[in-house]
């Protein structure tokens, strides 16, 4: 049954489709496949019906090479991972495909270069614009038209290059024909001239069609541009009139405010009772202004009335009733610190390294590895070290202590609400190291440990252990001489979705302070790695965190705003409100997870106007001047060649004296990668993973034999048959060495708690119980 002949579009179009014979194997030879060329990608299907659900293969033309074998055959390859041997039905059809492929390749390479330069890879098409939005809608329309016209101009340039190339070849052939005598070679040369003349005609037609498209678009949009320009002029006139009216209103309000202030100064009793009419009017106008903002957040902060600053040091009862007693010590001073505390500037007793070997420039096609892994758990995908960074997940977890000074300061706070500000800032600071770090840390081996002993420099000791392999789980315990303890067990759930990877850390983080016995808990937000297939990798954090003080009932709700191309807000924004157990707001936190966090003390709160989207009222917080609570440390010099490691990360894999034999610093594949010997590191990585599999199989056999022997010695009663704990008995009897499994008294989760003994074993130099994992 013959297929209907499909119309062939011009090669200058954005999409090219058609039947081409593809080499499959030596048994079936060439088989007819339906090929689609779109957006710089060449995909093929067995039939046209498969286009909606099953793609048999895709190759990115930006990095591909296109070669011609003979009259009908041509080859497309991206460097060895993918190679398509194709055959057209005739010579003319082959050249149509060659022209279309070269155009698509040039456009894809150009788009990739622009994407790398800008650092952000967003769709080139403009977003859909709703009708009736005035100048913004028309401006988007103009921008879209300009982008389309620019693309057509680039097509014309590419076609011009192709015409020059084919024209030169034709000229050479004609010159050779003139010098020939009438011999047997004349026929071959004449055929060659004819072939190249045909190619030249096809390319010329493509350029003519592109020119026609360009002219048609220019004529269609010329009137629209005139209307858009006139609309912009009208809008500018309206804005000038509006600004003039606002300036007059501002002067009027300023005069009214001065009059109210003078009236309050002349009557102290009246001023103590409450703000004057002029003040209230000014405040109402401010609230109206903020309510009119587009895309407003859940709450609004405005500067507190100047009267609050004057009254904060007085004992006026009317104002004291608006303040929480344990907040009155703050006023406009920084968060309180114990004056007897020692200086935070401690000179390290050991000189730490400041560099690692530069990252080699090895290229590898990620899509060739990931295309068969869509929907799988990321930890189960075998990955070469080319996508790693030379530290393990345990060391990455220890990087949460980069800004341990926040917990040191929190331990000295007099108020639990002040302490909450520092703890919330600490929970945000752990993400600052991820903004440039697109490399994947090594998956720890089961039983692998990592110690970070900075007791002499910074007063804390940290220990991590991989307590489970599937699912991967790491237990972490930190004890500080400065009055705090941090513990967590993190299980990473991750999914590869084709264009991005979602990493969802599961588990609760605990911070316990000796002073006041305050116990805080929170969880981590979702990390997303974008542009896995094409473009520059970039990382985003999104979600919400509730930092809870289980001792006092205080709570801080933090919101990590996901990145949006259309948002007017600052990128990577984090906002939060610190509330007491009664729900009264005391502090507002704001900033970005990659740069800094600030806090502002709330003096008054009120319900503002309605939110236009859902009709909800927003809370307006009147706050004092914002104070910085945390700022990211600058990256060391040359960090871009050292995996963008921070100063702490550069020291994590540095050898220490007396380490346990299971410490990540002993891991050979990780050490080889750090030294730049990636091929050897890949071999070692495979050896270690195979060794871990064999140990796990042996452990499962031992567990199975133990269950069999216990069942043969004891009779199984009727209750044991229905006991769910027996039915769900694990096949693996592995137990962690330094952590024990128990129930968390706060969350009720089954977690691993540090049982002690590690640092004592290190002091003795006794590691008999450690397994041989490397």
UniProtKB/TrEMBL annotation:
Major localization listed first in the record, in broad terms: membrane
Region (Disordered): 109-146, 259-285, 325-346, 656-728
Keywords: Lipid transport, Lipid-binding, Membrane, Phosphoprotein, Transport
Localization, UniProt: Membrane
Gene3D superfamilies the record matches: 2.40.160.120, Pleckstrin-homology domain (PH domain)/Phosphotyrosine-binding domain (PTB)
Polar residues composition-biased segments: 261-270
Residue stretches of biased makeup (Basic and acidic residues): 664-704
Domain called PH: residue spans: 13-106
UniProt family annotation: Belongs to the OSBP family.
Name assigned to this protein: Oxysterol-binding protein
Organism: Cottoperca gobio (Frogmouth)
Gene designation: LOC115023864
